[in-house]
Amino acid sequence: MKHSDQHADRRLWIRSLLWGLLLVVCVMGIAHAEGLFRWLEPDARQVIYQRAQFYELLGRHLLVVGVAALVTILLGVGAGIAVTRKKGRDFLPLVAQLSSLGQTFPPVAVLALAVPVLGFGTLPIIMALMLYGLLPIVRNTLAGLHAVDEDIKMASRAMGMTPLQTLYQVELPLAAPVILAGIRTSVTINIATAALGATVGASNLGDPIIAGIINGNMAYVVQGALIIALLALTIDSLFEGLQGRLRQRLSSSQRLS
Amino acid sequence: MSLLDALPTPKLRRGGCPNAVLASLSIVMLAVIWGMDAVSVAPNRIVQGTGVDVLGAIGLPGALLASLLILAIGGLASQPSRTNYAAAMGVVVLLLALMPFGLMVASHFLIDPTLPQARLGIGASYWLILFILLLCLIELRLRLALTRLWPVLILTGVGLLWWLCASLWLDDLALVQEFNARDRQFIRAVGQHIVLVGVAVGISIVLGVLLAMLMRRFRRLQKSAFAMLNFLQTIPSLALFGLLLAPLAWLAANVPVLAQLGVSGIGNTPALIALVAYSLLPIVRNTYIALEQVSPDTLEAATAMGMRRGQQFWQVRLPLALPVLLEGVRITTVQAIGLTAVAALIGAGGLGTFIFQGLGQAAMDMVLLGALPILILALLVDAALGALAEALRPGGIQ
Amino acid sequence: MIELSQVSKRFGDETAVDDINLKVAKGKFCALVGTSGCGKSTTLRMINRLIERSSGDIILDGQALEAYDPVKLRRRIGYVIQSTGLFPHWTVARNIGLVPRLLKWSADDIQARVDELMALLGLPIEEFAHKYPHQLSGGQAQRVGVARALAADPDILLMDEPFGALDPITRIKLQDELASLQSRLHKTVVFVTHDMDEALKLADHLVVMRDGRIVQQGTPLALLQHPKDLFVESLLGGLERGLKQAALTRVKDHMSSLGPTLPSQYRISADFSLRQALSMMLRDHTDRLAVVDQHDVPIGELSLRKIVKEAQLEKGSMREA
């Protein structure tokens, strides 16, 4: 059984490697594939998006999503931990309710509402991504910590672990798969929402699509869409690999998931 | 929902510690009300408005009244009891009800009636107070252990009051002006949005349930079908819309029959295809789980009692599966409402049009005109379908 | 040495433990017995301060419980619970080594201690050290639970229905092993159970609880002979009480020396209990058994008449005392 697990694990990593490779090939190769796109859009003046290099757009996209993800993970997991401790327990019902209600807010609406408050540009995007991406992480942190067996927590206290030791050595490792799933959801949504950021003045992989739609240039649209899709698939498969790795280490995960 | 149901419900503590949540929320509200701009005034639609603080907007008496009411919430929460919580709830509702009147006072003070284009914008503190008051409402509902119906009723009442105020007396409000300028368009957009969502969800329910049943019949299908649906769900919406544009445009250009049927690269066709593609996963997953989770013991008992297969399906399997299935429909619909907004980019219409037009023209009130109804629509659908699923859950089982 | 005096615990309006007095001498095995919800687990958890008592005093080795830092206190007290509470993400070896690691022992010392404990509890190291809790049977998991509790060689061991979730055969096996461990290690044990047979078998001191109060306490034999009321008597098995008492008595304490008559053809080992002897008599339709030593050599005789008579005498003498 263990053997087949490892096998599946390796297959996951190979898959994410393949998506990543395809992403790199597209980012580097689109500029040289003029013939292909000319066939798609024979009458256009240009068929390759020129305003910025694709790797620049990819870099900016990753930066925005990365910064937002880093902050949300710290804040979200922190908040989830804080409200499940003795001192913050008062806030637990409200935070739990809010994080579940927040799933209802459409990301587009959140992004649109952020602009009047924060203005145009990259910063409002990062803020909107952070606000929105926080909720799945908080929610899953709460769910994960909540799922840790009461008896196990009691046993760790009874053995003489300090609250901090219980948190780091018992609760967080056991909740990790659920928390990671929340981070995966958050990042997936954020990659998609960041692309919409092109409409509020951020320059990223959404740009070619928006420009293509406005100018009626299908070639641009396809270029942008292809790269975003590959980026999303690469990142998502990386998370899947990470989850597989975690599940393997945490042999008990079937009890928790 | 299951997480929330599992959480310990907060108990009313007798005479015990003050409620830290409401106390901190009221402190934050006080800071917001005195520290941020309440409204903004602009001479016309495009110019960025200038901010006005609370004293300028509703004067010292108004500011003191608001602060007093906010303090009352924190004060009542410092000695928690059922009556005090109920009173705090009353204060919250009162504050919500007073908010449009504050705007009226502000427009009376600040808007020069001789300037027909002048308009009042709602400032950051107004939005934040509104948001925090809603948090207070949630917290109080939880502490008083009220059903979900209560906040819905309260907010419906408050919403009607706001709408009344807006349509009768708040002509200077930028949002209202924006609405008045294109009320026909707005109503059409709401209609389009709802129709798009409804059709997409309807198609996905039919397809999704069929697919789930096929997956139960042909087990080998299961893995690849779920992998495919997960794959689709991972692709960002903008990219999927984009990727559908090109082939559909090609089809419309080269297959005249399809073009006659209304297929084109831009518009409803790619929007519907993408919406259905996204909607399938939650529906299929929940249907599959719902049908699968019915315990074999229950089914064996049904067989043993002499139920036929058809009877088993209609009388045992379906009633037990229905709440989970509805949960899938809820997730799908809420998701589709958001995604339809993105579809406006490829010309599908709907409320997203206002968002993207507004962003293009830097007209923030127009953005709000699109974003707010989308948000409200999503919350309404979520509450309605959630309540329906709860009502259908026999005997409160999970 | 653990001493509880006038200890109470109230949860809101509910009194879970009501004014109990209890003394457990060093090296003794004390069992708390009662129906569920009688406050026995709460009493146990007040000793390692998992639950803080509402009133009363608890003295541990001559010092008030407050004098100890709760975390350090718990590292000195072993704790075993019914659901084992093993950490599912750690191997057996790491689980057992938990407290020594908390106490910052060196890696070699921890390793040596884990090996020693696994041997002590009959868990072959090569087979079990790297397994995870979910790969163990109920009995194996509870052995690991006991090993973990013993890891830092605590003087005191608290056990909360440790064998309650096991099948009867495994349970009896683990009870026997615990008894033999205790005869070697002489820990001060407080053991919570609702299984009276388990308590009678293991305890030096038996405490019967009901609705948060102690109804009766004493040696198992004393309780069997003089249950205070109907509740204690029914808990002790009602009509079966005589047999349970017989189970606590060794054959060698009641045998008479070999007489002039031929020894009976039915033989019983001197270490067996009187209950087993009675059972043999019933099975083999005899009222006399020959008692043999471990080499199967007759060393005495046991007769039904004598057992009954001595039981009468014992009861009489107890009453006078």
Automatic annotation (TrEMBL), chain B:
Organism: Vreelandella populi
Xref: InterPro entries: ABC_transp_perm/SBD (IPR051204), MetI-like (IPR000515), MetI-like_sf (IPR035906)
Stated family: Belongs to the binding-protein-dependent transport system permease family.
Pfam families on file: BPD_transp_1 (PF00528)
Membrane topology qualifier: Multi-pass membrane protein
Cellular location(s): Cell membrane
GO biological process, one term: transmembrane transport
Keywords: Membrane, Transmembrane, Transmembrane helix, Transport
Protein's name in the database: ABC transporter permease
Keyword Transmembrane helix: yes
UniProtKB/TrEMBL annotation, chain C:
Localization per record: Cell inner membrane
Stretches of the chain forming a coiled coil according to its record: none
UniProt key word ATP-binding: yes
Domain spans labelled CBS: 255-320
InterPro entries in the cross-refs: AAA+_ATPase, ABC_transporter-like_ATP-bd, ABC_transporter-like_CS, CBS_dom, CBS_dom_sf, Gly-betaine_transp_ATP-bd, P-loop_NTPase
SMART domains, sorted: AAA (SM00382)
Keywords carried by this UniProt record: ATP-binding, CBS domain, Cell inner membrane, Cell membrane, Membrane, Nucleotide-binding, Repeat, Transport
EC number: 7.6.2.9
Pfam families hit by this protein: ABC_tran, CBS
Keyword Transport tagged: yes
MF GO annotations: ABC-type quaternary ammonium compound transporting activity; ATP binding; ATP hydrolysis activity
Topology of this chain in the membrane: Peripheral membrane protein
GO biological process, one term: amino acid transport
Record's catalysed reaction(s): a quaternary ammonium(out) + ATP + H2O = a quaternary ammonium(in) + ADP + phosphate + H(+)
Main location: membrane
ABC transporter domain span: 2-236
Subunit record text: The complex is probably composed of two ATP-binding proteins, two transmembrane proteins and a solute-binding protein.
Family: Belongs to the ABC transporter superfamily.
PANTHER family: GLYCINE BETAINE UPTAKE SYSTEM ATP-BINDING PROTEIN YEHX (PTHR43117:SF5), OSMOPROTECTANT IMPORT ATP-BINDING PROTEIN OSMV (PTHR43117)
Name this polypeptide is given: Quaternary amine transport ATP-binding protein
Provenance organism: Vreelandella populi
